[in-house]
């Protein structure tokens, strides 16, 4: 969709400066014993999954303000994902959401292949009612008091697995909105037991080489209690299900002030860390662009992950999960993929031998300075070179804007009018 | 809409017990020098405004699950408000939201009169785009960088005043979602200046006997910064506008842990407290039913208000502002009106002379115990007697259920299907 | 220490009114099928442990403002605890803190017997350095990088067990301040492993009929990360140790907004709830008097506990853990014991059959109302009657003040001058 | 105290690399039209005040773990401050705390001159009781119910001004711990009025060319309410006092999630921003080292300040206010001064013309990217060159360690033993 010549033309204007900056940084890193090419190769090997639904403009319960060229269906979304990957080289897979993305698997595979994309974790949806649905999820899904509703929700998850199998996916992410808006509305203990029972039914249908991810969230859409409210409940779930069950951490799903990188560390300890939903936030589950609010927090999460590389059984799934309300979603997803990659590269620069020594000596000041030294390294040339060598864009956003892609799809995809959110 | 005979029949089954409980409580209070009838008369004089939109089932950005008999328009909503007031005797006014509630003023007045309702503060809406709107509010309204958009938003507010004048309203509440989702998206200082400039334009159109309420909110729908993010910015706004400008406090619009009753106290000190939006919350702007999460906090707010009675210039507007996602909105609004009234009555029982003496002696333990003694008084018989004497229902919810009102309107109002929120 | 005649004299002035109020409430409860005497007997059977150190005036890092008659040692503290129990009848055990309370076991047992007190869970202290200590805990204790420091901390805990055995205690509570003030200061994974290893060493020394409680806390004294930061880490600890290891929940040790009653429910599900530290808080680990900030939250916690009565293996330890900075500690502890007892009694009034039915029907409004109906019941006459019948004071605070106890001990215990906290 | 030859020797080992890195960065910045020397000169002109008390090891209410060579008095502290300034060139003034730092003004001036230091804002202390004090601050100081206590606190502040005048200080910072631990303990409105009345008495004694800073804090040491709890109350205070009264923002004194840079912007709008207390925090008023937890937040604050340069009447006071519990305080203060300077320099690199244009176009993505581009610039060579040219150390920490200063003072200053904090 983005002509390679456009990328090449834009890259040509940056190449000389990039080479100079890359060499300069390389020299500087080499003084510390770091081989910039090795780091760049790590960057090239990095990929994060894009959520299909992230390509459309998001909204709040108050309103949604669509942009131009909103994707009409999963095929439009895959086209948009193709652009993201082509320009960044760092987003080679897509995570589907069922039923929003239901389509003929052969068509999906063909479209994905066209863009060099694969399919990451499948996402089920039991937080909304679909038009043809027998039972309503108003009062819950997998944890509903009514067995028929639970069965319907289980069945839907099994269908997601089935679709995923046909697409080469290897994981199912289960996030439910079940909970309560009032003290007393549910019996919290029995509700959790019903949830676990349903999850076990799903687990029985999980192929041997699949994982199931339990995703916690402190609140929203339930505002008093949520069945899987934190990593503790998520851990209990994964423990009771079995080895194929892991916990997924969404960076925006925690109580204020919580130390997320420590949760990462604890789940690694427990052998139950499965993956991430990347985004950024200031207040609640704001779903803002990754790395735009607290970039150091993102770095600290990656610091744990890079540190844990090589841990037996640790095989993480990385996905972006954001809502793009005021930007072009393609631009936000490109920048987010790059910011996540940036934190990964910065974390790869941490002098771990020095850090371990400072920790052993309780030299808190220098240990902390060691992390900051890696974080403040401007790795932009590494990221740019990784893209350049991969045939992606040195400057993804400007190349995208130069390509006229948005205007083109705007002419093909009908205009969507603004709409209120859930409050009206 | 609710036949008086139904109320009377239900009340008859409770009257004997009520009399006994009321007398017993009266005797107990009299020992402390409190005249129960005086307190009951305060309860009878209490009224809180109902938000017209609160009569419909609310939702989140994830989904909305409508109930049966959803109101189709403002006339249905006024019918529902009529039920609420008839059964509680504590909700005699309605707060309209423009443009959702636009209709012929004469028809609105006739319908209100039918139910014995009046019109409270008007609410403008510049956080959503309307179908026929020239300028979009995607990037702000009263604080937008574009003058034409600001002018449109000002014009809308002036129209709200105009409509309100025809309905006997005396106040305009301005809440805007303007802000930013990214650091740098807006220049926070200039954005605030644009907001103030627009507010001054609205203020110029405010009738002499009207008030304009500035309502703050820490976040949502903007997730990095909000123009009127807290009471400090709201205070600056009211100060710069003039005497008719006051601050409105919504109980759910604060940062975690914030002492809301202290903000009430400070705004009273500054002569700028104008009114309340009542609801309850645990995490963010959860918009849960008043008094269901932290009833003591609601009491402490009322404790400040009752204490400040008689302060020159203090004339507060009280409104419910909630989202009813899992209950019958009429039931939630009735119970909420009662819970707000309950806190008001409990706060009226505080022994203020004793409290002042303990405060003077730094007897923190007994001062605190004095508040709790009032709070733990079970004033249910007072509330019930106030309703009984006013011809309302001793037990509003059960009487409502017995009336069959919901089933009746469900047969008249078309079924609404579930829908996703802003995220799809 | 408090002469029984004083209690009897004060009670005599209240007895007639109490009888009337008790009977009236009894009649009212009987209409709902509740036997007030059965509830009162539950109240009489209730007891919460008092922390020995709570009898002294607490402070902050900024300052401590001692009162008159500060206890000089554990024997003075036990005298104060004796007063608390004598006047409330609800605080029959004391929780000791080692090394602060080290003394000859025989003397301790004799003093406790004098007051009718027993010894609850033992508390170890590895968050402070003692004068004679070989290794410093500045950089940690059970999780320290240095094996000798860890061994010293383990040894101290084993000594606490040994002391506890001589006193009839059956549990050890382990709370440590270990963590970090800087990202990078510690390797969070290895630090946790060292902690677990130390805990296993302690566990090996635990008598068969003892429990060990793991207590989590989000922050303070460590301000970036804490080894046992939440119930998830506490759960992992208890799971790895074995059946005698349980989790202890301190109400003030959570992130903002966290649903504590849900954590209670989850730990019950996991078979790992061991006990509580009661207090109240608005911001952090404020250690305010129980039930004075959010009484409904305390009720909701008790609602879970009462609901879970009869769960096999559930045998909870209840202790107050507060800091009394501006009140007479004896008064605060008496009132706190009563407020905890009050919430327990209120929770005992929940109509659980009705609640379960509403939950089954997804009648959120009535389910929630069912809890509130129990909470708003003014159970004061039940608490008073329970005390009266037990020979304690109907009005503990006024009886205490009438007794002149504080003035008496002030004359015997030397005056303590004010002092700065940790910041100077 | 640090021999210049040591600095020169250490610098000599870094000079060649520094020159290369500085030139390389200069070339890169020049491509964007930025003159690195101009930025470096800004860095050289930067200075932040050091709090005298920060040179001692801090603690919590649980414990304090002193290090070696703790300063015994203000003269030792000034020696330590001299080291900090000599090695960083960025900390040329000291902020005194009375009564901790009371001494003969002539001696203080002589000692300061010896180190090239001046005296920044004076800090009063009415949150602790001093041994010789007539009235206790247990229940408040400037807002106490008792007139004699308020008068004593006012008198103390006037004395601080008097001392400051003799030292060349031009500002008084007032922070009080007054508040309440219980709902009802104080009448919040009257308490505020008493506070304002006392502040007016202090204001009357303020020299014409002085400023008085009102500092807010949400909680601690008061745990239910605090008299000046947020910037709204601080603003009201400054407004009621007059032109010489401004608000001081401590980065750690806010509710969770609060947007601090927005408060900065609002206070600039109101003409009431007076200064800062820099530190970092994750949970409460953690008083951690500046820039170590959320460096981007520090940058965003500086972004507002640099943007507002040239605003008439804006003349800010910058001070570090931290507690160094696990590091050598001299090292922490040096690194903190550098991190604050770093954020200032990064903020100076923001392309404000481009930013303004993006803001005008609602190009949120590029506006946000513009800030991040400045933030991620590794300005280390600029900071190092600024120090190098000023005769300070290219690497302050390693130079300090090489100097043996700590060991030297440890041999002169008596060892301090560990102590419990306020809780014992």
TrEMBL record, chains A, B, C, D:
Residue ranges of domain Xylose isomerase-like TIM barrel in the record: 96-286
Pfam families: AP_endonuc_2
Residues making up the signal peptide according to the UniProt record: none
Keyword Transferase: no
Organism domain of life: Bacteria
Assigned keywords, A-Z: Isomerase, Manganese, Metal-binding
GO MF annotation terms: isomerase activity; metal ion binding
Alphabetized InterPro entries for the sequence: L-rhamnose_isomerase (IPR050337), L_rhamnose_iso (IPR013451), Xyl_isomerase-like_sf (IPR036237), Xyl_isomerase-like_TIM-brl (IPR013022)
Protein's recorded name: L-rhamnose isomerase / sugar isomerase
The species this protein was found in: Celeribacter neptunius
